[in-house]
Amino acid sequence: MDNAEKHDPTAVLAHWIYTREEWHQFICWKKLKKSFLHYTIYIFTPKTNQVVPEVKITMERVWIGDTHQHFHSKEHQLKRIDIRDEGKLNIMEISYEWAKRKIPGLDAIHVPVPKGKLREAIGTQEQLMQRLS
C-alpha cells in the first residue's frame, strides 16, 4: 500500500469471500455468544436462502454485504483490534467508542477471518492499529 492509500479512508484493506460453511460457523458463533436460545433457534431454522455476504474493511468502516458499520469517524473512535482463535474459526474484533452511545463503553464489530487469510488479517490489524498511534 502506498502513502496515498494509507490516508484514503475508502481504500479497501481486506476483501473477503466466505464459503457457506465458514459463514454458517460464524453465525452459529454469534448466536451462541448472544444466548443458547438464539443459537438453538438458528440451528433449527431452515437456511435454504441464506446469503453469504462479502466483507470489506476500510480504515473507517466494515462492509458486510450492502450494510456498513463505522468504527472510526467523527462520532466513532477506534480503540483496539484483536484476532481471536475461536476453535474452528478466527474472529477479528474491532472495538470502538461511539460518541452517541447512552451508556459509556466499547462497541465491537466481529468479522470472521476466512481460511487461508490469517496473514492478511494480521496485516489489516497492523494497518488499523497505526491509527491508534
Report the oligomer.
single chain
Helix content: 25-40%
Q: Into which percentage range does the β-strand content fall?
A: 25-35%
SSE string, helices as H and strands as E: HEHHEEEEEEH
Radius of gyration: 16 Å
Structural class: alpha+beta
Q: In the CATH classification, which architecture applies? A: Roll
Please report the number of helical segments.
4
Structure explained in plain terms:
The chain has helices at residues 3-6, 20-34, 36-43, 118-129; strands at 14-16, 55-57, 61-64, 67-70, 76-85, 90-98, 106-113. The strands form two sheets. A four-stranded antiparallel sheet has the order 1-2-3-4, with helices on one face. Helix 2 (20-34) packs antiparallel against helix 3. It is of the alpha+beta class and 133 residues long. A hairpin with a 4-residue loop joins strand 5 and strand 6. The chain has one domain: PH-domain like (Roll), CATH 2.30.29. The protein contains four helices and seven strands, in the order αβααββββββα. The chain is globular.
Question: Any descriptors?
Answer:
7 strands, single chain, four-stranded antiparallel sheet, 133 residues, 31% strand, globular, three-stranded antiparallel sheet, disordered N terminus
